[in-house]
Amino acid sequence: MTILSTSPLLTVTYPNEAIIEVSLNNPEKFNAFDDSVILAMSEVFAQIANDQDLRVLILSAQGKHFSAGADLSWMQRMADYSFEQNQQDAMALATMLYQLNTLPQATIAKVQGAAFGGAVGLISCCDMAIASDNASFCLSEVKLGLIPATISPYVIQAIGPRACRRYFQTAERFNANEATRLGLIDEIVELDTLTASVLNRANQILSNGPDAVRQAKSLVLDFQHQEINDSVLAQTSERIAQVRVSDEGQEGLQAFFNKRPASWLRDKE
């Protein structure tokens, strides 16, 4: 399946047949996004979710900066919207973020330069994030008398409620080291090695069982907020039992015991 973008401000490329890179492509405006880009992202994410051959999504941006967040002209238009129009507009963003957060594929944010406002939400929705050492971050909404509402569930999950109490209210700018300490970023690299580092992470994922990776991600999404009780014990036991008797589980175990590459590794050769 070929994934198509309906916006020139969102590009799609394939580092290899199992990896797709979706890039914000408006560097003249620091990759600020508006409702048309949000719609294009939503459509692209829906296509990716249905493509079994794609295993890793890299979310990136062209130019010096990841994204300045919401486009100013879009914000100016929103100022004239009614409550109902604003709610509908915000729901489109909320839906796109949910799609990204729940994609069955592994997702990696590739971050350079500034990531402000909604851009922090995009990063928080990804499974992992690698940033250049010049990256900076800001939850800047309150500077404009607004709030980071639609991104808040994901940012709170990423950096925790205590840090959000601070950064939601102060709109302070923080660097890549602080973002790593908070858990928003999991690796900092030099700018000229950013692409290679992200591809290395993607290839690490590709070296693992395809179905196992998808199901491992679903464990986090399904159980992160559940109380550990008899129901969870039964569900998790059932899941590992199903995986053990699956074709992929059997192949992985046999490959390990016979000291040979698993089939998904041979397919990469």
Automatic annotation (TrEMBL):
GO terms for molecular function: isomerase activity. InterPro entries: ClpP/crotonase-like_dom_sf (IPR029045), Enoyl-CoA_hyd/isom_CS (IPR018376), Enoyl-CoA_hydra/iso (IPR001753), Enoyl-CoA_hydra_C (IPR014748), Enoyl-CoA_Hydratase/Isomerase (IPR051683). Keywords: Isomerase. It comes from the Bacteria. The keyword Iron-sulfur does not apply. Gene3D superfamilies: 2-enoyl-CoA Hydratase, Chain A, domain 1, Lyase 2-enoyl-coa Hydratase, Chain A, domain 2. Coiled coil: none annotated. One of its GO terms (biological process) is isoprenoid catabolic process. PANTHER family: ENOYL-COA HYDRATASE (PTHR42964), POLYKETIDE BIOSYNTHESIS ENOYL-COA HYDRATASE PKSH-RELATED (PTHR42964:SF1). Belongs to the enoyl-CoA hydratase/isomerase family. This is Enoyl-CoA hydratase/isomerase family protein. It comes from Thalassotalea litorea.
